[in-house]
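Z., the sequence and structure:
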Amino acid sequence: MHERLTHFREILRYVPRFRDRVFVIALDGAVVEDDNFPNLLLDIALLRSLSIRVVLVHGAALQIKRYAELIQMTPSDIDGTGITDRETLNVAITAANRVTHEILEGLTANDLRAVCPNALVAHPAGILGGVDHLFTGRVERVDTGLLELLLERDIVPVIPPIGIDGAGASYRLNSDAVAVELAKSLKAVKLVYLNTEGGVRDARGAVIRQMTAQEADAVLKKSRAELPPGAVTKLTAAVRACKEGVERVHIIDGREQEGLLGEVFSNEGIGTLIHANEYQAIRQAQKKDVRAVYGLIQQGVQNDELLKRSRAELEKIIGDYFVFEVDRNPVACAALHVYPEQNMAELASVFVAERYENQGIGAKLIQFTEGAARRRGIAKLFCLSTQAINYFVQKGGYALGTPDDLPPVRRERYEQSRRKSQVLIKQLSDRPG
């Protein structure tokens, strides 16, 4: 009960930001066939109840393979990126229609109105690399007016991976690319890809939780051969979406229960987030941050990393603190306490929430705080540590000091605490090293 209440509160925190905004949600055909699909539809119904406008796009690769086997033919293309001959186009239309119908059935069962509009105007992909791609198409135009009219009337558009040109000819489209065009045209705040592989993984097999569009592009250039084909197309689409104005692109496992909600309504998520703008930021703490900073410090005290500080005391000096935000939520903190008579300052209360450890956040906070000290003309920085001594010496450029190096007021408090922390000293130059 406590966990569900906490989850509900977290959802409510995001609602004002997303109300009346558009989410484009792209489902692989395999997701529609998974046992979790009914739960996914419930999540979509919840989004709609929160006044979030939803456009659904779906693929049909799994269904194309299955139907082709049934009629004993070999498709010339599966995902809408290769050459689509006439017979494959017919199979794709039949398979896509079936998937569309299953989605409409599911949405209706959840009291949601939905339609499949002819909102995509397509044209042939043409001759690429000297090869005619026949009935493979590209999106020429999105009928934005039609889609916006449906959304305003609380109707969920369901878009298949088939487009029609002005003469009434149909073309097979790649659903990942279609989702980008829709998100761009509708100025969607989020584009969410639901697959059966989960987020993009690094060389160790761990899900990469977040990347800038530039970092995602670098992954594609460096590791394209090692990535699954589905990850390549989605990562490519995500990079293009970000470059063309979509703020957030998520790649998640559509088979995970409450995965959609866990991704879009939490600041850690379950899959991979590719973002266009600055997702992480360091800023000076404000009065509104006292609760969050106090919570972080308490975690540090429990781990015997930080000196205990009362909330009342923190409120008086909150201006000395900097917070590191992830999607507007403070997840780490550091403080700069200045001793003007000695032209010295203390780097203090550096702490990163456990779930964000080993992501370089602590180092960024330390560098930022040192920069703030330089801008104030501070000549010497010191810090006290019981557990991160080697880090400050080997990576931070600090030297071992003694209590005699501390300003008199700070030395008195040091002796009273009896923690016997190691004193570390850093002479600041005009420029960071």
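Residues 248 and 275 are 5 Å apart (CA to CA). The two ends are 50 Å apart (CA to CA).

Let me know what you think.
H.
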